[in-house]
């Protein structure tokens, strides 16, 4: 019998949601990122305004997952944050005043006597403060696992009036969601997500299915540690939907050696220098 989860409250919340967040813990694994990206892509396909965030930078292990470039370190867009580097205890005061006639706001940063003034070229601007209606947290034990994202959006994430979906397989999960899609018997988040996306009646296209297959493969050591028939059933369904196996481990076509028609038989058609050891420098040249 296929697994079922408490999806109805999530489905109802999405029907009226104006903003949706999909959040990952700091230093996430491939399974969590793959599951989150599949959900993000499905929600965007549905036409929902959706943001996906993670406080950790995405490393090379994730670079072939579809949509990975959409993951942001900051998720809000309501509050303007002005940041700059300045020695500690070197500011005399920070003040502001309003100019209603010209609709201007002035922020004045005054250094202490003898200190250098702030270099305007070093000022950075960013945003925080999301007003999302539905928040999915993928692969976390607690909200604190979100790291800086939790600190930036604590008021939002602690707001009990929001629909907060906790999707995880991790032990010692604190059940922090208003909806907890917690299943320690599943191979990982991607296996749960395959069922959830279908239950939410969202489109599950080939790119999304490929992400979920990659997540399941990562969580099960390429299915060698799959513990139940549910995992294999999910894999079969994702392949039928157009998902590609071994997407993260298959060598991209542009990195493969180009066959040389003049190469003698018995050498696999590779260029003679392809098999020689190479050292790649930081500039991209090879030695």
Keywords:
7 helices, 18% strand, 2 domains, 287 residues, inorganic pyrophosphatase (n-terminal core), alpha/beta, six-stranded parallel sheet, two-stranded antiparallel sheet, disordered C terminus
Describe this structure in words.
With 287 residues, the chain is of the alpha/beta class. It folds into two domains: 8-77 and 129-240, inorganic pyrophosphatase (n-terminal core), CATH 3.90.1640; 85-122, no CATH class. The chain is 25% helix and 18% strand. The protein has helices at 8-16, 30-45, 148-152, 154-157, 189-199, 206-219, 229-240; strands spanning 20-23, 50-53, 71-72, 79-83, 91-99, 104-111, 124-128, 134-138, 163-168, 179-182. The strands form three sheets. It has a six-stranded parallel sheet, covered by helices on one side. A two-stranded antiparallel sheet has the order 4-7. A hairpin with a 4-residue loop joins strand 5 (91-99) and strand 6. The N and C termini lie far apart (57 Å). Mean pLDDT is 83; it is low at 265-272 and 274-287. InterPro entries: DHH_sf, Oligoribo/pAp-PDE_c-di-AMP_PDE. Residues 248-287 are annotated as: Disordered.
